[in-house]
């Protein structure tokens, strides 16, 4: 179990130090900002949709935050790129379930999440759940064309 926890920590630290899909898109179809007042995490998420708006063609983020927030945004952008909006929403539900749901069924959610399962240990630190889900709430705001910033409160 210790080896698995070490691997999870390595993945999170790697995505924090070398975030994937970091930066701005030239002409995003959707953009949203997110803010976690408890930790101070802030991000802007740019989304490019395919021609009919059914799938996420490209996605990038920028901003600052703790290691969990940045790693979560990095892994999220990798996970949703190429997925339909409905698939992305389902992925968020499963991710949220992994972090906040009944621990006895968490293996079920984790099996569908791939690399995102590295955040399973975050459930032990409720304040950090908000860090891990900020990017996801911001994605929802972008897809819904919300004008107010997404927040974890």
Give an account of the 3D structure:
With 153 residues, this protein is of the alpha+beta class. Helix content is 47%, strand content 18%. The protein is built from 5 helices and 4 strands. It has a 4-stranded mixed beta sheet with strand order 3-2-1-4, with helices on one face. The radius of gyration is 15 Å and the shape is globular.
Order of helices and strands: HEEEHHHHE
How many domains make up the 3D coordinates? 1
- Helicity level: 40-55%
Shape: globular
Arithmetic mean of pLDDT: 89
Extract low-pLDDT stretches: none
* Backbone CA Rg: 15 Å
Taking the sheet with the most strands, its summary is: 4 strands, mixed
CATH architectural designation: Alpha-Beta Complex
The CATH class: Alpha Beta
Number of strands: 4
Structural class, from helix and strand content?
A: alpha+beta
Topology:
Elements: H1 2-17, E1 30-36, E2 41-49, E3 56-64, H2 67-80, H3 85-100, H4 106-113, H5 126-143, E4 150-151
Parallel strand pairs: 1-4
Antiparallel strand pairs: 1-2, 2-3
Helix pairs in contact: 1-2, 2-5, 3-4, 3-5
Q: What's this model, at a glance?
A:
With 153 residues, the chain is α+β, with helices and mostly antiparallel strands.
């Amino acid at each position: 179990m210790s080896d698995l926890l070490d691997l999870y920590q390595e993945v999170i630290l790697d995505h924090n130090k070398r975030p994937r899909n970091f930066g701005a898109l030239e002409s995003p179809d959707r953009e949203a900002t997110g803010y976690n007042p408890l930790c101070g995490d802030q991000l802007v998420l740019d989304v490019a949709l395919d021609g009919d708006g059914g799938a996420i063609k490209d996605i990038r983020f920028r901003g600052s935050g703790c290691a969990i927030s940045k790693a979560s945004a990095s892994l999220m952008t990798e996970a949703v790129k190429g997925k339909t909006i409905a698939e992305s929403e389902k992925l968020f539900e499963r991710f949220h379930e992994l972090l906040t749901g009944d621990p006895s069924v968490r293996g079920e959610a984790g099996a569908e999440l791939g690399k995102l399962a590295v955040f399973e240990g975050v459930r032990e630190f409720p304040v950090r759940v908000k860090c891990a889900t900020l990017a996801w709430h911001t994605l929802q705001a972008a897809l819904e064309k919300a004008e107010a910033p997404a927040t974890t409160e």
